[in-house]
Design goal:
Length: 301
């Protein structure tokens, strides 16, 4: 995959990248081919929000690292003392041979981020990028976007797909890849629409199945306690699970399936992609594209 140099990326380049991202589902062009899961478990990573265990304790427990929130705790959830991830934490992890991956989730249930559709990405994508950077996260790595629900296909079509496409547009324009956290159906629908290149599956509504393109699997009931902090334990199925260390240079994925350069189109192709993108969904149109671009623009000027 070709990564963006944020200091030289022009507004026209942003439009091109955004057009590719939004047109992906319409014309079968994926921003980055999805990482293919392996048939065996390669290790485990944890996720948590109630506090921050030490890197030494996490390493002693035998984990590879953690997927950490690049989002703030919700109002009324002051117990989430582990949100957001910070630089001191990721440096401690790196010093103990551990890696970090990033996930964004602020709302839940009736306040789920995706309920706003594409417009929600204008609020949430800048926060995800800013907190990822503040924690030492490099470009070229994915930020998982959480769909912590068991949605219907109608909800996916009308709200989740526009939200994910707009979020992917902002991430792509700012030089990042996209991960999707969701159940089996959400991963199936998103991957077919060209959304995401990393997939983290939860079991709610998955019917006991593990999606063949899964990168990480959050198995229901697979939990532990480290330094007195409750953690979820996740099985890792790909050598590249979106991990990074603070200060790491932006480099292509170690998974060969994601090392694909997507050339930017010329103006005629751009116009065609824009027209096709506007037909992808009544909820994914040029107005939504502009909303997403506004979210990304501050990171590429």
């Amino acid at each position: 995959m070709t990564f963006v140099n944020n200091s030289t990326y022009s507004r026209r380049g942003v439009l091109k990248a955004a057009s590719i991202a939004l047109a992906a589902g319409a014309v079968g062009v994926s921003v980055a081919p999805a990482a293919q899961s392996q048939s065996r478990i390669l290790g485990t990573v944890i996720d948590y929000s109630a506090g921050v265990p030490s890197g030494r304790a996490v390493a002693a427990a035998g984990h590879l690292g953690a997927v950490r929130y690049v989002s703030q705790p919700r109002p009324g959830s002051e117990w989430m003392k582990g949100k957001p991830v910070g630089l001191a934490e990721t440096q401690d992890f790196a010093a103990n041979g551990l890696s970090t991956a990033s996930v964004y989730q602020f709302g839940k249930d009736s306040t789920a981020d995706w309920l706003q559709g594409a417009a929600g990405a204008a609020t949430h994508a800048p926060q995800a990028i800013a907190l990822h950077r503040a924690a030492g996260g490099p470009t070229g790595r994915p930020i998982y976007v959480a769909i912590d629900d068991n949605p219907t296909q109608t909800q996916y079509r009308n709200q989740i797909r526009p939200y994910l496409l707009a979020f992917q547009t902002a991430l792509t324009a700012a030089g990042y890849q996209t991960g999707v956290y969701g159940n089996w159906n959400t991963i199936e629908w998103a991957s077919k629409d060209g959304i995401g290149s990393f997939y983290w599956q939860h079991d709610w509504g998955s019917g006991g199945k593990i999606h063949p393109r899964v990168t990480i699997h959050q198995k229901a009931g697979y939990v532990g306690k480290i330094d007195g902090i409750d953690v979820d334990i996740n099985n890792v199925y790909a050598a590249d699970w979106g991990q990074w260390k603070p200060g790491q240079a932006a480099t292509p994925s170690t998974n060969p399936s994601t090392n694909v350069s997507i050339p930017l189109p010329d103006q005629a192709q751009l116009d065609q992609l824009s027209a096709q993108a506007s037909t992808l969904s009544s909820n994914v149109n040029q107005q939504d594209l502009q909303v997403a671009l506004e979210a990304a623009r501050k990171f590429i000027q």
